[in-house]
Amino acid sequence: MKFTCLSKGGGFHFSPCHMLNVSGFRILLDCPLDLSSLALFSPVPVAHQAHESLDTDSVIRKKQKIEKTLDANDLVHAEPWYKTVKNLHLWDASFIDVVLISSPMGMLGLPFLTRTRDFSAKIYVTEASARIGQLLMEDLVSMHMELRQFYGPEDSCFPQWMRWEELEVLPSELRKIALGKDCEELGAWMPLYSAVDVKDCMRKVQTLKYAEEACYNGTLIVKAFSSGLEIGTCNWTINGPKKNIAYISSSIFVSMHAMDFDFLGLRGNDLIIYSDFSSLDKNMENDDTYFDPVTSSSGRDDVSNLEEMAASLLKDDESAEEIEKLVFICACALDSVRVGGSVLVPIDRLGVVLCLLEQMSLLLESSSLKVPIYIISSVAEELLAFTNIIPEWVCKQRQEKLFSGEPLFAHVKLIKERKIHVFPAVHSPELLTNWQEPCVVFCPNWSLRLGPVVHLLRHWCSDPNSLLVLESGVDADIALLPFKPMAMKVLQCSFLSGLSLQKVQPLLKILQPKLVLFPKDLSCKIQISEANMIFLFSENETLRIPSSKESTDIDIATDLASKFRWKTFKQETITRLEGELFMDHGKHRLLSGFQPANSKQQRPLVHWGSPDVKVLLTELSKMGISGTIKQVTDDAKSEDDAKSENAAAIIDIHDPEKALIDVRETDHIKISIQIIHGREFILYT
Amino acid sequence: MFDCGMHMGYTDSRRYPDFSLISNTGDFDNALTCVVVTHFHLDHIGALPYFTEVCGYKGPIYMTYPTKALAPLMLEDYRKNMDRRGEDEQFTSDHITECMKKVIPVDLKQTVQVDKDLQIRAYYAGHVIGAAMFYAKVGDAAMVYTGDYNMTPDRHLGAAQIDRLQLDLVITESTYATTIRDSRYGREREFLKAVHTCIAAGGKVLIPTFALGRAQELCILLEDYWERMNLKVPIYFSAGLTIQANMYYKMLINWTSQKIKETYATRNAFDFKNVRNFDRSLINAPGPCVLFATPGMIVGGFSLEVFMQWAPSEMNLVTLPGYCVAGTIGHKLMSGKPTKIDLDKDTQIDVRCQIHQLSFSPHTDAKGIMDLVKFLSPKHAILVHGEKPKMATLKERIQSELGIPCYCPANNETVTVPSTHYVKADASETFIRSCLNPNFKFSTYSSVDKSYLDSKYSKAASGLQVSDERVAEGILVVEKGKKAKVIHQDELLLMLGDKKHEVQFAYCFPMHTERLQKTRTEELPSADTLLCDLDKCTLINQLSMKLSNELSDANILDLGEQLQVESFRVSICSKNSCPHRLSHSVHNDSESVFLCCHWSLRDEKLAWKIISIMKSSSPHTT
Questions:
Q1: CB-based contact B476 A578, cutoff 8 Å
Q2: Where would I find the Metallo-beta-lactamase domain in this sequence (chain B) (predicted)?
Q3: How many C-alpha atoms does B592 have within 13 Å on its Cβ side?
C-alpha cells in the first residue's frame, strides 16, 4: 500500500486531499477547492477605480517593491480563477480508479477532474453530501457568472495577471496566495468550470447512504460512516482482500445538526489514516478566544472499559460550547439591531447557519424586535427545503422531531410565518419590495469576493452600528481590503470543525488499529503511546506501508470441499483443488463449477522425496519383480554419494525380464527397461 | 424475528402470534437477537407493543425511518378503535410510546451489524412508504424476507429494488399468488371517472381508508386530476390524523417515487392544495364533496358514521379498497349488491348509493413474485402471507419453472432449510497471482458428453474444448492444528521441504538398417548404405515421417540428430555399451543401428506407442 498526502488543506472549507494505492487500485480521497485564495482578486465594485489609478507612478512604485500597507488597488483586477489542490495536477487523472468524497466541500474541485479526458474513476459520495455539494457548486457557478458580467468574456486563455512580470510586482502577501510558499502553486489555478461541467460531474457520482456497502470491481468494499462535521459528511472504510483501512476526516463527536461521529463503525480496521487537521488551524489563531491548549489526557487513560470510554468521548461538552458561541453571536447581533444597525452573516457552513437561524429568531422573538431575517442565495430555497427532508442524516434530537411529527429544523415554520425571507439574489424584485432595515442577512460567500455579500458589505461598511460576522480562518485584513475604510464592527468566530487532540488518544484506543498514519505536523502536539505502529506523513511525500497479511483468505464451499480426494502424508493432508474461483465483495470464493471429465488424467504426476532403494526393492519383489542392488555407479566418485547411502544406486532387475533402475542424487530415477509388455511400474517413494 | 403483526379478523387472543413458540419460559431476550419490522401495517406491527410491553421483550427492534415515524399513528388508531368497540385493551397509549423508544431506525441499504454475527440490511419494497425487504446474514448463511412489496411503481411510491445477492432462502409474500394484473392506469381512470360522474351530479364521495398510504396515493391522484380538470369541489380529510400524516409524508418524501421526490424544492407533492379538514357539521351540508374517512373497510368509527348518512342516496358513491377482511361492512358491500345491511340487531342501513371497488393494490402480482424469486435465485423459497390453495399453485410454479425448492408452511409449522457454509483457508500470493491470469488449455472433445447434449451445449460437445487450469493448479494443504492453506502446485515441494524427483525411462533397442534401407530405397532412390552423420539425420527424418503418419495429432519435433515428441526423445545410440541396452544384445553387426529412447513418466503410454511403431518398421522385435 502506498499513501501520498497531496494537500493538508486549510480549515473547514478546504479539506485535505490524499492519494492512496491499495490492492492495485488508486484511490483519491477528496477533491476540494481552495476558495480562500479568492482573496487575491478584487470584487467588482473597486475594479473601476483601479483602472484609473493604474498610472505609471504606481507601477514604478510597485516595481521598486516599496513596502507599504496593502490597499485595494494591490488586488488583482480580473475575472477570478480558482485554486485547486496544488499537487493533484501532477497525477494523471485517468489512472485514478476510485474517488471518495467525504464532505460537500471536498467535492468542489471534482468537475475539474471529471471533465478531463479519459477520466473513468468511480466517485462515491454520500447522498446528502452529493446534493449539498451540487448546490454549492451551482451557487459558485452562478455567483461567478454574475461577476463575469462585469469583466466581460476573457480574451485569452492565459490571463494577464498570471504573467510573470505581473506576479512579480504583487505585494508579498498576495504573491504568497498566488504562488504558494515555495512558488510552485501557479499550476493549480484554473478558470471555473461551467454549469454543464457540474451537471456532468454529478452524473458520474455514485451516491451512498451511511453504512451502505459499495463494492468496487468485486475487490474493494467502501463504506461511509457519519463524521458529524456537517450534514452528509463521512469517514470511509476501505476493505480489500488484504487491507482494512479506515480514513478519518475532520469529525465531531456530538453535533447539533448532523448525525454524530459514528466511530464504532470504524472499528476492526488494521490501518487508520488520520486526516483531521482541524487542530492545526486552531493553533494558528492565537487570538482565538475559544482556543483551549491541548492538555495531557493522562487522567483518562485508566478508563479501561471500551464502552465507558466510548461514552466518555460522546459525553464531552463541546456542543454546549458551540451553543454558547451561537448565543454570543446572536447577542451581538441583537445589540447591533437595537441601535439600528444591520447584521451581515456571510457564513457558509450549512449546519451552523441552520442552528443560527433558530437561535436568532428565538432571540429576536423574545426581544420583541420586529427585525426580518433575509437569506439571499441562488440555492437557498432548495437547500432549506432539502434540509427538511433528510431525517436519516441529522442528529438524534432532530430525528426525534420527525418521530413526533415536527419539522427537523425550525426554519420551515419561520419561513411560513414570514419571519425568514428567502431570495435568490440581491436584485430579485421580491427582495426590493420586502426590504427593510435594520435586518439580519445570511448570504454567501465567506471569502467576501463573490455573491450577495459584496454588495451588502459595500452598502454597510461605513455604518458603525452594523455588524459583520466572519468565520475564523479568513484572513480578515486581506478579505476586508476592498471595503476599507471599515466602520462596521467585525466579529470573527471560530466553530468546532474537527476532533480536539486530547480525544485522539482515547479514540485510537477504542478503534485498536495495528497501524496509524498520522500527520507529521500534528505529531509534536500529541503523544501517542504505541509509537512503533505510527507512520508520520507530510505533504507530497509517498509512504509505503508494508502489507500486514501474508496470505489471502479464501472461502471454499463445503459441498465442494467434501468432494475433494485427499492424500495423507506424515503430517499434512493434501488435495488438488477443483471448482471455480470467484472474487465477490472482496472475498475469494471457491465454488463448485463445471469440470470437464477428462481434464484430470492429463495432469502429470508429481514425485518427490528421496527414494529408498531397499524399500523400492522390497516393494518390487512384492509385485513379483526381483533384482539386486549394485551400489557402484558411474557417479560413485562424487562426494554426495558417499554421504547418503541410498541416494545413488543401480538396481538390476532379473525377473521377469531384465531391467535396470538407476537412482541418482540428481533427483531422478532412470529405469532402463528391456521389454515390458504393457506392464506399468508403480513406484513407491 | 421478522415482523410482529396481528390478525385483523380475530378479536380474541388468536389475533396475536403464538409467542410461546419462541420461548416457553418467556425469556424472549435470549431467544431473539432482534426484531425486524418491515412496514407499518397492522398485520406486520400490530402485536409489537404487546410483545415488548406486555410480554417483556427488551432486545433491539429495527425498522426504517418512515415505519418508525408512522407506526405509532397506526397503532394508536387501532388502539382507539379497540377501545371504541369495547374490547379489552391489550396495550395502552403509553405502551406504544415506550415500545417505539426501543426502535432503532435504519436507512435503506444501510448495513447494520446487530451483533457479532448477525448483519441486516433494508431494501426498498414499494407497497407503503417505508416498506422494506430485509436481508439478513449470519456467517455465510444469507436470506431475504420480503415483507409486502410491489414490483410496479404506483402514484407515489417506486417499485421494489434489491441487489443480486447470494441467498440460501427467500421468504416472500404471496397475496396475489395467482393473479396477473394489467396496467394500473386504466383502473385509475375508472376510479377518477366514477368520482367525477358522482360529483358532477352533485353527489358525495366517501373513500373509507386508513390514514396512511392509500389516502396519500389517492389524494395525489385526485389533486392531479382536480388541477387538470380545474375542479373546485372540496376534498376533505376526516380526522386531523390524515393531515398530520401528510406532515410526515412531506419530511419522508425521499422514500417516495423519483417523480414525487423531485418536487421537494418547488412544491412538496404532499402539500395538498384542495384538501381541507372535515367536521361533523359538513356531513349533511349541501353540494358535492370527496371525503377520506378512517378506518378503511368501514369497520366502525367515523367512516361508518358517514356511511350510515350517505348510503341511502343514489347520488352518492362509496369506493372500497381492493381487499376487505370478512365480517366488515366493506366485505358485505363487495360481495354482491346488498340493498340493506344489518349493522346490529336494531340498526339497518339502506344501501342505495353506488359502490366502486378500487382494483389497484400495493401488492405485487404473481408475475412480480416470480420475477423477484428468479432475480434473486435463492437456494430455497418459502411463501407466506397468502391464501393456501393459491400458494400451492405458485409453489408448484416456482419449483417447476425455476427449479427452486419451495415451501409454504402452515402456522406453527417449522421448515428446516440447509444453509451455505464455507471452509476458510489461507491462499498464497503465488496462487492468487496465477489465478489473475487466464490459463486456458485447449483440447478436442473425444467423446460427446451426454449431460450436455441438450439445448445449446450440443454444438460445443463436438469440437474444441477450453478448460481453465487456474484453480486446478492450486493445492489445498491441511495440517493438524493449523489453518488450511491453498498454495500453487509449484510451491508444494517447498512447503513440504522435499525435493521433486523425476522418473525417467530409457530404452535402447536395435533396428535393422536393411529394413530401413529397403524402405529408404522405396522412398529415396539415391540410397547410401553407410551410416554417417548425415545418414543419422536421414534416418531420424524417416522415422519422423513415419511417426507423423501414424500419430496424426502428436507434435513431432525433428531436431536433426534426435526426435522429440512431448518428453519422449529418441536418438541413435553411438555408445558401444549403452546401460539402457539389452545386455544380451544379439545382433552386433554393423547392419543394425541402436535407437536410444528417453522419456519421463507422464508420457509413458505415448512412449510405448512410438516405440512399437518404430519397432514395427524394423524386422526384429527382440
A1: no
A2: 16-203
A3: 21
